[in-house]
Design goal:
Layout: H1 3-18, E1 35-42, E2 53-57, E3 63-68, E4 74-80, E5 83-90, E6 97-103, E7 108-109, E8 113-114, E9 119-122, E10 125-128, E11 134-137, E12 140-144, H2 156-162, E13 166-168, E14 174-176, E15 183-186, E16 189-190, H3 195-203, E17 210-216, E18 231-236, E19 243-254, E20 258-269, E21 273-296, E22 299-323, E23 328-353, E24 359-385, E25 391-414, E26 420-429, E27 432-447, E28 450-473, E29 476-479, E30 485-504, E31 507-526, E32 533-551, E33 556-567, H4 571-574, E34 578-582, E35 585-588, E36 596-607, E37 611-631, E38 635-660, E39 663-678, E40 686-701, E41 705-714, E42 717-719, E43 723-725, E44 728-739, E45 742-749, E46 757-763, E47 766-774, E48 778-788
Parallel strand pairs: 1-7, 1-8, 15-18, 35-38
Antiparallel strand pairs: 1-4, 2-3, 2-5, 5-6, 9-10, 11-12, 12-17, 13-14, 15-16, 17-18, 19-20, 19-48, 20-21, 21-22, 21-47, 22-23, 23-24, 24-25, 25-26, 25-27, 26-28, 27-28, 28-29, 28-30, 30-31, 31-32, 32-33, 33-36, 34-35, 36-37, 37-38, 38-39, 39-40, 40-41, 41-44, 42-43, 43-46, 44-45, 45-48, 46-47
């Protein structure tokens, strides 16, 4: 993004804020004897409605105060002087409720307010309002998956690419507001997986099981301090009304090979119980490629690698809530992910003398691997909430992750004529076991003019990684004691927080402080005692957070937020084991990797609850840079190192709007400036301006057909602080038809095949020019059948205590 583009983007922000200067204040100042108004808003099925706009006006229509309901559908408005008012309750897709109220010398608790769906019948044609694709809320942006045509038949990875302000890099790492290090939550509970295992899980998670994706860039003190770029929370669907409802769906993807996603889900709501479950799977074959042109000293390595992955992934989720009474609920959730993958990678690397250009030899590495993972999580929870504003919740969690991986690595050195000069055949057996225990408790009550929250959390993690390296001779595997070892990592985290929210007139403030103490110990145990290493750390950190909002009038609001966060290394990034492409190129963990810290500051403006403009600044110390280093004259390895600090400036504008009754558009435009400041002499300081956008057009056609055209683009960017990546993008097309209980869709993803990446890097005297990608251009055929009662009530959403720890597993 050049200077002119940045200036135009900043001009948009300034002009948006300029609207505030013409807004006339409509609020009446609090008077002696001011009281509090409380109430609850429910749907036509008597389900609590969150995020409903609640406005108090004078009888003449002037704004006095405004609020939004919480997840239980409740609201509280303070500092109302005794007088007569008009209460206006509005929510997208529902009829607006208006009623006269009178505030006396006592607090006023309103009867439950029930809203009706906005349904209008015209000559046998029924028009039903639905949620907008994007909702900008005070503390997050919500991407309503069910409202977008192109989501049908997609999996979790594909949906994240479409979420506003979210990018995925060439390794499917999630980037928000120009920063990596995003935590992935499922229904408020952090995912147990990372890296390839998280990708496999999300591939098996179909869009028809997802209600929405929440992008939380500035989490409050209540959340774990981990994740320097914030949180992405994937909300799974919960159906409405009493009875039983479910669905069955299937997607067939035609790329270079066939693959399929299948899902069965159900919810059964009884008077005192809610039971729900989902099974989904991913089955099929996919491909990828990576080409690396490496110059190391006086030698050129021109590597070409083509890989195939044949996988079978299963996700199982079963839960139940029991309503003890109107105030108390207990529940439990069991989640299981089973993943089996077989892969082959054929790598061919001509080794060339840089001076003469003559091929000295060719390294051929037909690699194969078998990978099996089992991930099990159990959550038990209790929740109490009364009408006075007191809320207490407690969670106990246990998670276990195991992975068995066997990697066969033949290496054949060939003469240019094709004859074998020599060979080195190896095998690596690398089982991993991780156990996580966590417990937390949260308490909330009204205090003064606001709400006070506090809580405690404790977690314990133990990871055991075994690396057995074998040399294969004449078909016999012999353990190499010099290259075999075991890495054991223990970590305990103790946390506590306090948070206070209050509002006065047009202003609202929330501030909190979280303290976390980390005690970790990593031991590398080798057969040769001289290689043993131990890394122990104990540190305590404070993580303040605060937010200030100003509602100038009904159309304009401003928000200023700040938070300090930490990104601890993934457990596998600490593991010093090697993962090989061939014997010359591999990835290695770093047991001495330090956590990185981030200070985030964000200013945002919202106009008419739709046009959202934000500007953010972040400073990240001890950034996790992805560094490729040379070993001798021929070998190189990729590892994560603290060799730089990072500065990120980001501006973003998002706007959902309707062109007319049959054409709706969502657009998100962003500009990011990344600067990496070297703290290691071998690292080259670098910076990059990046411009990008996501746009989605939904067109209603006759006969209940819907057409969707969407796409995204990212100009050149920097990956891992070291790789300069060229432009990326994608064009997606989809057409959908719904009839009775059936939904069908055909879509084309990455129609122009523009997702594959190209990039360069240099560290010391090593330079690499690379490119890579997968069979991202494909055609999806999707069908869904829904059964049972169409109005089954939503299940309770849980936030478990395995939040910070589980997102750091796997690589």
């Amino acid at each position: 993004m050049n200077t002119k583009t940045l200036f135009i983007a900043l001009l948009i922000l300034v002009s948006t804020f300029a609207n505030l200067s013409t807004a006339r204040a409509q609020q009446r100042a609090p008077q002696v004897g001011a009281q509090t108004l409380t109430g609850t808003v429910i749907s036509e099925t008597k389900e609590p409605l969150p995020y409903v706009n609640v406005i108090v006006n004078t009888p003449e229509g002037n704004l006095v105060k405004a609020a939004i309901t919480d997840e239980q559908g409740t609201f509280k408005i303070q500092d109302l002087s005794p007088n007569s008012y008009t209460l206006v309750v509005s929510f997208v897709g529902y009829k607006t409720v208006e009623k006269a109220i009178t505030i006396t010398r006592r607090p006023l608790a309103l009867p439950v307010i029930q809203m009706e769906l906005a349904i209008e019948s015209l000559d046998n044609v029924t028009v039903v309002a639905q949620k907008p694709i994007i909702q900008v809320q005070p503390d997050k942006t919500v991407f309503n998956v069910a409202s977008t045509v192109s989501s049908a038949g997609n999996n979790g990875i594909e949906l994240l690419r479409k979420a506003p302000g979210v990018r995925l890099d060439n390794n499917n790492n999630v980037i928000v507001e120009g920063k990596a290090g995003v935590l992935i939550y499922i229904d408020g509970r952090q995912s147990f997986l990372q890296g390839d295992d998280l990708t496999a899980y999300l591939q098996a998670l179909q869009a028809d099981t997802i209600e929405s994706i929440e992008i939380i860039t500035q989490p409050s003190a209540r959340y774990d301090a981990a994740g320097n770029a914030g949180i992405i929370n994937i909300r799974l669907k919960r159906e409405k009304g009493l009875g039983t409802r479910g669905s069955v769906s299937s997607t067939v993807t035609v790329g270079e090979y066939l693959r399929t996603n299948n899902t069965v889900s159900f919810t059964s709501r009884l008077k005192k119980w809610n039971i729900y479950g989902t099974y989904s799977n991913y089955l099929g074959r996919s491909t990828s490629f990576i080409d690396l042109f490496r110059i190391q000293g006086n030698t050129i390595f021109d590597s070409r690698t083509a890989s195939e992955f044949d996988g079978f992934s299963n996700n199982i989720r079963f839960g139940a809530d029991h309503y003890l009474n109107k105030k108390s609920t207990i529940g439990g959730v069991i989640t299981t992910n089973l993943n089996d993958t077989e892969s082959t990678s054929n790598s061919r690397t001509p080794i060339i003398d840089r001076t003469t250009g003559v091929v000295d030899s060719i390294l051929s590495a037909p690699n194969s691997a078998e990978n099996s993972t089992v991930n099990i999580g159990v959550n038990l929870n209790y929740r109490y909430q009364d009408t006075t504003g007191i809320m207490f919740s407690a969670d106990v969690d246990y998670g276990r992750y195991t992975r068995d991986r066997i990697n066969n690595q033949p290496n054949f050195y060939l003469a240019p004529s094709g004859e074998v000069l020599n060979e080195n055949i190896t095998l690596q057996d690398t089982p991993v076991t991780i156990d996580i225990y966590a417990a937390k408790a949260d308490y909330q009550q009204s205090l003064g003019k606001g709400t006070f929250e506090t809580g405690l959390k404790a977690s314990k993690v133990r990871t055991d990684n075994i690396f057995d390296f074998f040399n294969t001779t004449n078909g016999e595997n012999v353990l190499n004691l010099d290259r075999s070892n075991e890495f054991i990592y223990d970590e305990k985290i103790y946390a506590g927080y306090a948070k206070y929210n209050f509002g006065s007139g047009k202003w609202k403030f929330q501030g909190g402080l979280r303290v976390e103490t980390t005690d970790s110990d990593g031991d590398l145990i080798a057969e040769r005692e001289t290689n043993n290493q131990s890394v122990s750390r104990t540190y305590t950190d404070l993580f303040p957070s605060a937010g200030l909002t100003y509602a100038a009038n009904r159309n304009n609001s401003l928000a200023l937020t700040y938070s300090r966060r930490i990104q601890r290394p993934n457990y596998q990034d600490l593991n010093p084991f090697e993962y090989q492409i061939d014997e010359l190129s591999f990835r290695r963990g770093n047991p001495f990797l330090q956590p990185q810290y981030t200070n985030n500051l964000k200013l945002s403006h919202t106009y008419k609850y739709t046009l959202n403009t934000s500007f953010s600044y972040s400073y990240i110390s001890d950034f996790f840079a992805q560094v490729t280093e040379a070993i001798g004259d021929t070998r190189n390895f990729l590892s994560t190192r603290n060799v730089a600090d990072q500065e990120v400036y980001n501006i973003s504008v998002s706007y959902p709007f309707k062109v007319n009754n049959w054409w709706s558009v969502y657009a998100n435009v962003y500009g990011t400036y990344n600067r990496f400041i070297a703290t290691d002499n071998a690292f080259i300081s670098t910076s990059q301006e990046t411009f990008g956008f996501y746009a989605q057009n939904t067109i209603l056609l006759p006969k209940d057909f819907k057409l969707e055209v969407s796409g995204w683009y990212s100009s050149p960017s920097i990956w891992g602080g070291t790789y300069e990546i060229k432009s990326l993008g994608s064009l997606n097309l989809g057409i959908q038809k719904s009839w009775k209980q059936w939904t069908g869709k055909i879509s084309v993803n990455d129609a122009l095949f523009t997702i594959p990446w190209n990039g360069t890097t240099q560290f010391g005297d090593l330079s690499i020019d690379g490119r890579g990608g997968s069979d991202s251009r494909n055609v999806n055929f999707y069908v869904q059948y829904s059964f049972g009662n169409s109005e089954v009530k939503k299940a309770r959403k849980r936030k478990g205590s395995l939040e910070d720890e589980k997102g750091r597993i796997g690589r």
